[in-house]
Design brief:
Chain lengths: 240, 331, 294
C-alpha cells in the first residue's frame, strides 16, 4: 500500500487550470515536487492537505479525483481531520502564534496523536536556545525552523513542507536541510515543494515535476536533468 | 512511555508554578484581601458600597477577559447573562426561596446553561460575526421581559424584596472579594494550562490551529460557558445587593464597564482587571456627583481613546517596569 | 383565524420588507465590499434623524435644506469613523469595539438632557404625509408605500452602478482582490471611502423617509442595525441581490408572529434572532463564505 496516492486531481480558479489531471503515487521516504513558477506546486500541496478541494465536477464518474493516505480516502476531509490522521502541512509564509513563546507554539500541538517530546523537537530543529522567546520577534531563519518544529510537534507520519528553505541564505538553508536529512533518517517521511533544485534534490528519493498544472516528470534525480520535458519547461520558456 | 507522560505533565506544572509566582498576580491577591478591611466590616459607608459594586464589575471583567479577551471573540451579550442571573434570583426569591447560596447556585447554573445554548450554534461563525450576533442578546432579554411581564404574572416594576447577599455591607464586600479571588485564581490556572494556550492560539491564528489538527470549537464553547456562569452569578449578587431585580440588569453599563476595565488592565491578562476595576469604578463614583449624566459620556470617550491608542492596557508596561526595577542586568 | 391576519401580515410584511431591503443594502454593500463590520451603522440613521430635528424643528430651517444637511452630516460621520479606524484600529475586533463605543457615545450624547430633552421621543417632519390610509382594510402610513418605491429605485440604481458602469467594475475588483487591484493602479482606499459614503447615504435616506412615521429616541440606532445585520446574515453577504428574499422572509416572519401571538410589546427582535440562528445552523451556505474555515 502506498503512503500517498493522488489520482486525477484538477483544480481551477476562475478560468485558470491550476492543476490539470495530476496523478502520482508515493512510496518512498522523501518526494520533491518541483517546477517553474506558477506550476501549481503549492496548490497541489494544499489540495492534498485538504485546504483546497479539487473541482467538484471531477469528483464524480470515472476518472474522478481521489486522494488516498495509507489507503484511506481523504479527498473531501477537512484539514484538521487529515492532520489528525498523521499528515501535517507547513506554510510557505510562516505563521507563528505571535503572542506565544517558541516553546508554547509547540506545546499547542504536543498532545496530539500520543504526544511529542517538545525538548527533543526543539533540539532537532535548533531552537533550544530561543525556547522562551516570544515567537513574534524571531528572525526569519528561526521562524522557518519554528514552522518545521510546529509541524513535528503534531507527531506526523507524513510532512508536507511548502518551500521550507524559501528565503533563507545558503548557510541557513544548509542547516535546515541537514535537519530534514536527520528527520528522514529517524523515520519521518516527507513531501517537499521547493524551487531551489540544487539544494533539495540531493535530500529526496524521488522527484515529481509540474509545469502549468501538469505532471511532466515522475522519476529519480538521476534522469531528471536530462529529461526533455523538464528541459523544455525550465529552459525553453520565453521568460527563462 | 511513562517517563514521557511525567515529563509532559511536569512541563505544564512548571509553567503554572512560574506563572503563580508572577509579582503582579500576587500583588493583586493582596489588594483583594485588603479591601474588606479598608471598608470596615459593619458600617454602610459609601466606600463599602462602591467597592462592592467594583467587585461585581471585576467579576464581569474577569469573565469577559477569560472568554473574549483571550480568544478574540468579542462577546457583547454579557448583559444578557447578567440579567438572566439577576432575574432568576429575583423570580425564585419572589416565590419564597430566600436561601442565598441556593439562589447564587441557580443563577450560576442558569448562566452556564444560557452560555452553552448560545455558544454552540454561534461559535461556528468567525469572530466578528459572532460578536454581532451576541450584540442582539441583551435586547432579547429586555424584549422578552417587556412582552411577557403580564402573561407570567410578574410584578411590572421588577422583583423587590430579595434577600441581602449578607447581613452587613462589610459582609457582602467580603463575599464578593472572595468570589473575585476564586474566579481570578481559577481562570488564571486555566489560562496557564494547555487549555489556555489553545485559547490564546485561537486569538493569534485560529486557522493555523485548526488546519493542524486541533478542533477549536470545544475549547471556545467551554470558555464561554464558564464565563457566562460567572456572569450569571454576578447578576444574582447584584440583585441581592440592591434587593431588587429588574430589566435594568440587561443594560449597556454591564458591557461598557467590563470592556473598559479589561482594556485598561490589558486584554487577556486577567490580573489587570482587578486593579483596573477598582480604578474605573472609584473614578466613576468620584466624578458622578460632579458631572452627573456627562460622566458616562466621558467614560465612553475614554474607552475609545484606550482602544485606539493604548490597546494593551497598563499591565504590560507595569510588568516591564517591575522587571526593570528588580533585575540587575543592564536593559 | 388565518384569514383575519392574512391581510395585515401580507401588507405589513411586504411594505416593511422593502424598508428592510433599504436598511440592509447599505450594510451589505459595506460588508461585501469594504469588508467592514460596523456597529455604528444604525447610529448614522439616528444621527440623520436628530440632525433633521435640530435643523428643521429647533432652527426652523426649510425642510429640504435640513434634510440635505442632515444627510451630509451622517455621511461625514460615517466616513470619519471609517478613516479613524483604518488609521488606528485596522483589525476587525478593535474596529467592532470602536464602532460599538461610538454608537454608545452618540446614544448618551443625544440622551443628555440639555441637548434634546433626554429620553422623550421626538417627532420630525417628513416629505411624505404620515396620515394613515386604508389599504385592503389595513391602516397603513403612506410613508411605507413611498419608501417601497424609493427602495426599488435605489436597489436598481445600485445594481446598475455596480454591474454596468466602469467605476462599478473598479469597485468589484477592489472588493474581490484588493492587493491585485492596487497593483493595477486602483486606489483601493479611495474606493472603500466611496463605498462607505454611499452606504451611509443610503441609511441616511432611509431615516429621512421612515423616521417621520416613528419616534426619535436615543436608542433608535439599535433597530436598524439589527435588521440590517440579520437580513445580511440570512441573505448571504456575497451578493446583495439576496437581501431581497432575506428581507421579506424576515418581515413576514416578524409580522406573522406579531399577529398570531399578540403580546404587550414587540417580539420582533426575538424573531429576528431566532431566524438568524436558524439560518446559521441549517443553511450556513446562506451565509456565503463567512463560516469558519474560509
Amino acid at each position: 500500500m502506498n503512503l500517498l496516492e493522488v489520482a486525477n486531481v484538477t483544480c481551477s480558479f476562475g478560468g485558470n487550470r491550476a492543476l490539470d489531471d495530476v496523478s502520482f503515487e508515493m512510496s518512498v521516504d522523501a518526494l520533491a515536487i518541483v517546477g517553474p513558477n506558477g506550476a501549481g506546486k503549492t496548490t497541489l500541496l494544499n489540495v492534498i492537505a485538504g485546504a483546497l478541494h479539487p473541482d467538484p465536477r471531477k469528483l464524480k464518474g470515472k476518472n474522478k479525483a481521489k486522494i488516498q493516505f495509507r489507503g484511506q480516502n481523504i479527498t473531501r476531509l477537512p484539514p484538521w481531520r487529515i492532520a489528525r490522521l498523521g499528515m501535517v502541512k507547513t506554510y510557505q509564509v510562516v505563521r507563528p502564534f505571535r503572542s506565544l513563546t517558541v516553546e508554547e507554539n509547540l506545546e499547542l500541538f504536543a498532545k496530539m496523536r500520543g504526544g511529542a517530546d517538545v525538548d527533543r523537537i526543539l533540539a532537532a530543529t535548533g531552537l533550544t536556545e530561543v525556547r522562551g522567546h516570544p515567537s513574534g520577534v524571531l528572525p526569519f531563519g528561526l521562524l522557518k525552523r519554528l514552522e518545521l518544529a510546529k509541524a513535528l510537534a503534531a507527531s506526523p507520519d507524513l510532512l508536507l513542507l511548502d518551500e521550507p528553505i524559501g528565503g533563507l541564505s545558503r548557510s541557513e538553508a544548509e542547516g535546515l536541510l541537514a535537519t530534514l536529512v536527520q528527520l528522514k533518517a529517524a523515520g519521518t517521511r516527507m513531501v517537499v515543494v521547493e524551487h531551489r533544485l540544487g539544494e533539495i534534490l540531493p535530500v529526496v528519493d524521488r522527484v515529481l515535476a509540474l509545469d502549468r498544472g501538469r505532471v511532466i516528470f515522475d522519476g529519480t534525480q538521476s534522469t531528471f536533468f536530462d529529461d526533455p520535458a523538464v528541459r523544455t519547461a525550465y529552459l525553453g520558456r520565453a521568460d527563462a | 512511555m511513562a517517563a514521557e507522560v511525567v515529563r509532559r505533565a511536569s512541563r505544564g506544572r512548571l509553567r503554572l508554578l512560574r506563572a503563580l509566582r508572577d509579582p503582579v498576580f500576587l500583588a493583586t491577591l493582596v489588594v483583594l484581601a485588603a479591601l474588606p478591611f479598608l471598608a470596615g466590616t459593619t458600617s454602610m459607608s459609601s466606600l463599602a458600597l462602591s467597592l462592592t459594586l467594583a467587585s461585581i464589575y471585576i467579576l464581569l471583567a474577569l469573565a469577559w477577559d477569560f472568554s473574549s479577551g483571550m480568544t478574540g471573540y468579542l462577546n457583547f451579550g454579557l448583559p444578557f447573562f447578567f440579567g438572566v442571573g439577576a432575574l432568576t434570583a429575583g423570580y425564585l426569591s419572589w416565590h419564597g426561596d430566600r436561601d442565598v447560596p441556593f439562589l447564587l447556585l441557580v443563577a450560576f447554573g442558569s448562566g452556564l446553561l444560557g452560555g452553552f445554548l448560545f455558544s454552540v450554534p454561534t461559535l461556528r461563525l468567525r469572530g466578528p460575526y459572532f460578536s454581532l450576533l451576541s450584540f442582539l442578546l441583551p435586547f432579547l432579554g429586555t424584549d422578552f421581559v417587556a412582552a411577557y411581564w403580564v402573561q407570567l404574572h410578574w410584578p411590572t416594576e421588577g422583583f423587590y424584596g430579595l434577600p441581602f447577599l449578607a447581613p452587613t455591607y462589610g459582609g457582602m464586600l467580603l463575599l464578593l472579594v472572595i468570589a473575585d479571588a476564586v474566579v481570578l485564581v481559577g481562570f488564571f490556572v486555566l489560562r496557564n494550562s494547555h487549555f489556555g494556550l489553545i485559547l490564546r492560539g485561537i486569538r493569534d491564528d485560529e486557522d493555523a490551529l485548526s488546519s493542524q489538527g486541533i478542533s477549536t470549537f470545544p475549547y471556545k464553547v467551554v470558555a464561554f460557558t464558564l464565563a457566562s456562569g460567572v456572569v450569571g452569578f454576578a447578576g444574582a449578587c447584584y440583585a441581592m445587593v440592591n434587593t431588587y431585580s429588574g430589566i435594568d440588569a440587561f443594560g449597556f453599563d454591564f458591557i461598557l464597564f467590563p470592556i473598559l476595565i479589561v482594556l485598561l488592565g490589558g486584554t487577556g491578562e486577567l490580573v489587570g482587571s482587578v486593579g483596573a476595576g477598582l480604578i474605573v469604578v472609584l473614578i466613576y463614583e468620584y466624578f458622578f456627583p460632579i458631572f452627573s449624566d456627562l460622566t458616562l459620556l466621558l467614560f465612553v470617550v475614554a474607552a475609545i481613546i484606550l482602544v485606539l491608542f493604548v490597546p494593551h492596557g497598563i499591565i504590560r508596561p507595569l510588568r516591564r517596569f517591575i522587571r526593570f526595577m528588580t533585575t540587575e542586568e543592564p536593559t | 383565524m388565518v384569514g383575519s391576519i392574512l391581510a395585515p401580515v401580507v401588507i405589513y410584511g411586504t411594505l416593511f420588507g422593502f424598508t428592510y431591503v433599504l436598511l440592509a443594502l447599505g450594510f451589505t454593500l459595506l460588508l461585501g465590499i469594504s469588508r467592514v463590520l460596523n456597529l455604528a451603522y444604525g447610529a448614522l440613521y439616528m444621527v440623520t434623524a436628530y440632525m433633521i430635528f435640530y435643523f428643521a424643528v429647533e432652527l426652523g430651517i426649510n425642510l429640504v435644506v435640513a434634510i440635505v444637511l442632515a444627510m451630509a452630516i451622517a455621511v461625514a460621520v460615517g466616513v470619519a469613523i471609517f478613516l479613524l479606524c483604518v488609521k488606528f484600529a485596522p483589525d476587525p475586533m478593535r474596529f467592532l469595539v470602536v464602532t460599538l463605543l461610538v454608537a454608545l457615545f452618540l446614544q448618551y450624547l443625544f440622551a443628555y438632557p440639555p441637548l434634546f430633552q433626554g429620553e422623550t421621543g421626538l417627532i420630525i417632519p417628513g416629505l411624505i404625509p404620515t396620515h394613515e390610509i386604508l389599504l385592503y382594510g389595513v391602516s397603513v402610513s403612506p410613508v411605507y408605500l413611498w419608501t417601497a418605491g424609493v427602495t426599488i429605485v435605489v436597489f436598481l440604481g445600485l445594481w446598475g452602478w455596480i454591474e454596468w458602469t466602469s467605476y462599478g467594475r473598479t469597485v468589484r475588483a477592489a472588493a474581490e482582490d484588493p492587493e491585485t487591484a492596487s497593483l493595477f493602479g486602483i486606489r483601493v482606499r479611495t474606493v472603500y471611502i466611496v463605498v462607505v459614503a454611499v452606504s451611509s447615504a443610503i441609511v441616511a435616506l432611509a431615516a429621512v423617509l421612515i423616521v417621520p412615521a416613528q419616534e426619535v429616541t436615543p436608542t433608535m440606532w439599535v433597530e436598524p442595525f439589527v435588521i440590517a445585520f440579520v437580513v445580511s446574515v440570512i441573505g448571504g453577504l456575497e451578493k446583495f441581490k439576496w437581501t431581497l428574499p432575506a428581507a421579506f422572509l424576515l418581515s413576514f416572519s416578524q409580522f406573522y408572529v406579531q399577529f398570531s401571538y399578540p403580546t404587550s410589546s414587540s417580539l420582533s427582535d426575538i424573531v429576528a434572532f431566532i431566524v438568524a440562528i436558524a439560518f446559521i445552523i441549517v443553511l450556513p451556505r446562506g451565509i456565503g463564505g463567512i463560516r469558519r474555515g474560509r
